[in-house]
Specification:
The complex is a heterodimer. Chain A is built from four helices and nine strands; from the N terminus they run βαββαββαββαββ. By secondary structure, chain A is α+β, with helices and mostly antiparallel strands. The chains are: A alpha+beta, B alpha/beta.
Chain lengths: 161, 576
């Protein structure tokens, strides 16, 4: 099962290497790992998507928390979250297919960010499933390349207090 | 060994502008360091220059690995933080085995390494190695200090992290320009450890649940590890075991946490543990794990470990809980605090039937060897060492058969008495560990019970013992093999002794050449006499016991078997 784990870490050199090294050393599988700054200058947030059963993910959570510069670890499993992935995708788009492709892009609320002779580059943002669906739908046209950020997530506010 | 200040007048703890090197030395003194293990080199020259005037004993090993093991055993024997210093590149790399050893066994060490100048880092400079990168997985924490103003704080943090929670080694890498740079300091820098919290006090509700489970249990077993010794919780363990009347089995590193002369002691469990300990665990209805981590050498086949038992696990490291074995009642916190709380809530039960069963196993399957053999049995040597030191010596070991026979036949009665590389299983640990322990406990009898192959790895440190007049004793159980490897080859590889023997030197001659006393024993009748002579020696002494070459350690749980599926019980019974 996929778990989205969010770790607040001190913004120190070596933290990413420590976290990534721990995953490798303990044979945990990372689906994606995203690091970015937060509202506080000395803290970064890592969002890690891990695949494993509850026991494995429980160990992941504990081993992460054990790393000294890791300040806080949350596993979002079972709670309502907003999860987003950003993708840039270059799709082969000969003139005769362009309008067809553009309507697909619109359906997926994608944004054309570059148009060339052979390819168009599209920015798509959304939950992972949407990104995957868009990739699948574009396959018949020919995909030149894909760059994805990996998932970031934040829990939704409770509906009632 | 008492601190011998060389020229304390020059010690400048008060000045407000200091070099990085001076800040390091002052912070070490502030942290209570009076002895450290260090090897000099290019980029640590500024630091050693300041150490020259400091009231700190410096013990120079012959190899940085030895120095790291010395700092490790110094910490294990004293309960203080061990300090080791090495230069950049090869010096730092030589710490790796020592740090990994300390990490596995939760030993507090602060390692200070020199690094090339900050402007050279990443340029493949002479004696440059990315030591923080190399040691990240084998330290509790490490970092490089790139600005002199951060030095004092970082070193304070290092001592705090190393010694609290589940202890471990911390490495601080200091580029040479940072050691030379000057900085105004008023000594008031605070630690900044947002991500480091230690839970000491156990959850009161969980403790009550645990106490109820103990009160209800018919066949409980306490299974205790090195964590009890680290937490200085032996007294609380004794009180709990006494009050609730619980049998106690120990892991290798737990030896010494509970007096083995007591009737409730089940001695060591696991792969080469006592049959009665393994049977008790397998038949237990409640297992109370304290400061132990369900290592594979303890559990054997993990799905069939303690199959009928509910499991309580008391540990300061939440990540240790339910890692290998599912735990029913976890209690996270300091063993000393939790055991004391637990003792308040438990009732006394005689558990006559349970102890009767245990007594029968003890009667039927004690640790045994062939006492009538005409050759020197290694177990006989250990037994005699125990007898002639009244079971009071501090014992270190190598790794392998020598270590297991020591665990089986020396009877430990107090914490910090048995010092051995458990988790990593580092051959060569014994002699430097004995030196480190002797530095911590100058008046104690410290004996390294070693194997010939383990001793070969670090025997150069004998020169260190001689130089610093640390009167360690080394007893080599010399069978001319890597004994445990040979045992496995005998049992599982059709007696094909591939690469498991060496041409050894004459150890007594080596000892004498290095300035120690050397004794060779090849007759069984001479064993007690040689031990007495060794104990009477004022300085370091090596005794080379030519033991039975193909003796095996029994019982033995083969890899992947349940711990009650022991080999060798028939052999032990035939010796009765």
């Amino acid at each position: 099962m996929k778990h989205i784990i969010s770790a607040l870490v001190e913004n120190k050199p070596g933290v990413l290497a420590h976290v990534a090294g721990m995953f490798a050393a303990r044979a945990f599988n990372i689906d994606s790992l995203v690091v970015g700054r937060t509202e506080e200058a000395n803290l970064s947030r890592m969002t890690i998507v891990v695949i494993g059963d509850d026991r494995v993910v429980e160990q992941v959570r504990k081993q992460l928390a054990k790393i000294v510069p890791v300040v806080k670890v949350q596993d979002f499993v079972g709670q309502p979250v907003v999860a987003r992935d950003l993708m840039l995708i270059a799709i082969s788009a000969p003139p005769e297919k362009r309008s067809e492709i553009l309507s697909l892009i619109e359906t997926f609320k994608g944004k054309v960010v570059d148009i060339g002779q052979k390819f168009i580059m599209v920015e798509v943002c959304g939950p992972e499933a949407k990104i995957e669906a868009f990739i699948n739908i574009c396959k018949p046209y020919g995909i030149k390349s894909v760059a994805r950020t990996g998932t970031i997530a934040m829990p939704r506010q409770a509906k009632t207090e | 060994m008492k601190p011998k200040p060389r020229s304390p007048a020059q010690f400048t703890g008060q000045s407000s502008v200091k070099t990085g090197a001076q800040i390091i030395v002052d912070t070490l003194i502030e942290q209570g360091v009076d002895t450290l293990f260090g090897y000099t080199g290019g980029v640590v020259l500024p630091l050693f220059d300041k150490l020259y005037d400091a009231p700190i004993n410096i013990i120079i090993p012959r190899h940085e690995q030895g120095g790291c093991h010395m700092a490790d055993a110094y910490a294990r024997a004293s309960g203080k933080v061990g300090v080791v210093i090495a230069t950049s590149g090869p010096g730092a790399c030589n710490l790796v085995t020592g740090l990994a050893t300390a990490m596995m066994d939760s030993v507090p060490i602060v390692a200070l390494t020199g690094q090339v100048r900050t402007d050279l880092i990443g340029n493949d400079a002479f004696q440059e190695a990315d030591i923080t990168g190399i040691t990240r997985p084998i330290t509790k924490y490490n970092c490089i200090v790139k600005e002199v103003k951060d030095l004092a704080r970082t070193i304070r943090e290092a001592f705090h992290i190393a010694s609290t929670g589940r202890p471990g080694p911390v490495l601080i890498d200091v580029p040479v320009d940072v050691a030379i740079a000057e900085c105004k300091t008023d000594g008031s820098v605070n630690m900044e450890l947002a991500g480091y919290r230690v839970r000491t006090k156990g959850n009161a509700r969980q403790i009550s649940v645990a106490a109820k489970a103990i009160n209800k249990a018919k066949q409980p077993v306490l299974y205790v590890g090195g964590g009890v010794i680290i937490a200085n919780a032996s007294e609380q363990l004794r009180a709990l075991a006494e009050k609730a009347h619980l049998p106690v089995t120990m892991t290798l590193l737990g030896l010494g946490s509970y007096d083995q002369s007591k009737a409730e002691s089940l001695d060591m469990l696991g792969m080469h543990g006592a049959a009665y300990a393994n049977y008790a665990v397998q038949e237990a209805d409640l297992l109370i794990a304290v400061g132990s981590r369900f290592d594979d050498r303890v559990t054997g086949k993990v799905n069939t470990f303690a199959p009928n038992a509910k499991i309580i696990h008391i540990d300061i490291d939440p990540a240790s809980i339910s890692k290998n074995v599912h735990v029913d009642i976890p209690v996270v916190g300091d063993a000393k605090v939790i055991l004391a709380e637990l003792a308040k809530e438990v009732q006394h039960h005689e558990r006559k039937k349970w102890f009767k069963k245990i007594a029968e196993w003890k009667e039927k399957f004690p640790f045994r060897y062939d006492e009538n053999s005409s050759t020197i049995k290694p177990q006989y040597v250990v037994e005699q060492l125990c007898r002639l030191t009244s079971g009071k010596a501090i014992i270190t070991t190598g790794v392998g058969q020598n270590q297991m026979w020591t665990a089986q036949f020396y009877r430990f009665s107090r914490p910090r008495q048995f010092i051995s590389s458990g988790g990593l299983g580092t051959m060569g640990y014994g002699l430097p560990a004995a030196i480190g322990a002797q530095a911590a406990e100058p008046d104690a009898i410290v004996i390294d019970i070693d194997g010939d192959s383990s001793f070969n790895m670090t025997m150069t440190e004998l020169a260190t013992a001689v130089q610093y007049k640390l009167a360690v004793k080394v007893c080599i159980l010399n069978n001319g093999y890597m004994g445990m490897v040979r045992q496995w080859q005998e049992l599982f590889f059709n007696r094909r002794y591939s690469s498991s023997y060496l041409t050894n030197p004459d150890y007594a001659t080596v000892a004498r050449a290095l300035g120690a006393v050397g004794i060779t024993v090849d007759k069984k009748a001479d064993v007690p006499k040689a031990i007495k002579q060794m104990l009477a020696e004022k300085g370091p002494c090596v005794v080379d016991f030519k033991v039975e070459r193909e003796e095996n350690v029994w019982p033995m749980v083969p890899a992947g078997k349940s711990i009650d599926e022991m080999n060798g019980l028939d052999i032990l019974e035939s010796m009765a």
